[in-house]
Amino acid sequence: MATVIEAVKNPVESEKITINLGFVDLGQIELLVKEGFYSNRTDFIRTAIRNQLERHEEAVRQSAARRSLDLGLRRVTRQDLESFKARGETLALNVLGLAIIDPDVSAELALDTIASLHVLGSLQASPAVKAALRGRIG
Questions:
Q1: Computed from CA positions of residues 53, 44, 18, 102, in that sequence, does the dihedral angle turn out positive or negative?
Q2: pLDDT band per the 50, 70, 90 thresholds, residue 67
Q3: Distance (Å, whole) CA 36 – CA 119
Q4: Cα–Cα distance, 132 to 84 (Å, whole number)
Q5: 135 exposure class (CB count in 10 Å sphere: 0-12, 13-18, 19+)
Q6: Which residue did the predictor score with more confidence, 69 or 5?
Q7: Cα separation, 52 vs 56, whole angstroms
Q8: Average pLDDT for residues 82-97, to the nearest whole number?
Q9: Which residue, of 52, 79, 88, 98, has the greatest Cβ tally within 10 A?
């Protein structure tokens, strides 16, 4: 079952993406900004994306539940992984949103305890942990 995870201190609130738009689409956006419907291009694009996500909200929820994805933010601490290791268990992380593996998690501990990692969104982890888990990231 999908879970909603609470936000943690100082998470990155957004990630920059780049899109290409046709000249006519871009011109229409510029016109709406000039007419005061939106404060800037980014405001328009965020609003359009949110409207589409809202429109497909139920489909996203059903798909996330079917795939057993954690929704929102999933933070993995060194203590979490040490507990898994002590019990002889491994962790399969499936996240729709933001997955954070704390900076104090060593590459060795991550390899010992994280069996698989699938993130639809963004992963924050040290370069060493990302490199160690490269073959387990799906």
A1: negative
A2: confident
A3: 37
A4: 18
A5: exposed
A6: 69
A7: 6
A8: 94
A9: 98
